[in-house]
Amino acid sequence: MTSSRGLQIRAARRGDVSACARLVAQEPLWHRYGLSARRASALIRWALRRREPILVAVRGGEVLGFVWFQHRGTFVHSGYVRWIVTAAGARGQGIGSALLRAAEERILRHGPNVFLLVSHFNRRAQRFYRKMGYQRVGVLRHYVHRGIHEWIFRKTRGPLAQFEHRRQRRTRREVRP
Ligand SMILES: CC(C)(COP(=O)(O)OP(=O)(O)OC[C@H]1O[C@@H](n2cnc3c(N)ncnc32)[C@H](O)[C@@H]1OP(=O)(O)O)[C@@H](O)C(=O)NCCC(=O)NCCS
Questions:
Q1: Which of 40, 82, 107, 119 has its CA 20 to 30 A from that of 27?
Q2: pTM of whole model > 0.85?
Q3: pLDDT digits over 59-118, tens only?
Q4: 2 within domain boundaries
Q5: What is the domain extent for residue 45?
């Protein structure tokens, strides 16, 4: 998909790994988690090998951001956005929103919920998620590191049972001769 401003959102390829890992490694947020470019690169490669979805935002051949997510990464039934990041010099231009919308669109085909974790101190990301329709639904205290709490954010289209019921009705209609 390419927008009018020349931003393309596409599936990540092996050749994107080092650009994505650099974005993570340059981000002060992840310094607090001790995440190096080498480790980020190993994790992204591992995700690609497992065919986990990663979308990159590209403009003029340059990777300006990416999102890594799982269709059923939360509580078996629900989507999980694991990492999202945009280049520091390209923030506030709608790239993060475009990436998150593209991930949500794919997750919401499988179920009505998207979950993610955000550090308690990461106010900018919290504002971003609220603007994108997420609500804080809980907290995991000292989850990854002592002294850092993870806020649980959720965006929902409704209860699981309702989604399943609609899906079954759709399937019945499709198989009807
Ligand atoms: C969170 C993040 C992905 C948003 O990406 P982005 O490309 O800036 O997103 P958008 O341009 O779509 O911005 C949407 C909103 O984010 C917020 N925002 C983005 N850049 C900002 C900045 N430099 N200062 C303050 N707020 C900012 C604003 O609320 C903005 O809303 P606006 O359009 O009304 O101004 C990006 O800030 C980022 O990579 N942060 C570091 C990594 C991170 O925290 N990831 C999330 C981990 S849970």
A1: 107
A2: yes
A3: 999 999 999 999 999 999 999 999 999 999 999 999 999 999 999 999 999 999 999 999
A4: no
A5: 8-175
23 lines ligand 1 (CB under 6 A): no
Q: What is the CATH number of the domain that holds 78?
A: 3.40.630.30
How do residues 119-158 score in pLDDT, each as one tens digit? 999 999 999 999 999 999 999 999 999 999 999 999 999 9
Task: Report H helices in the chain.
Answer: 17-25, 28-31, 37-49, 95-107, 123-131, 160-175
Residue 77 within any structural domain of the chain: yes
CB 95 near ligand 1, within 6 Å:
yes
**Ligand 1 lined by 107 (C-beta under 6 Å):** no
Angle at 70 between CA 66 and CA 76, to 5 degrees: 160
Structural domain count of the chain = 1
The answer as to whether 1 is a domain residue is no
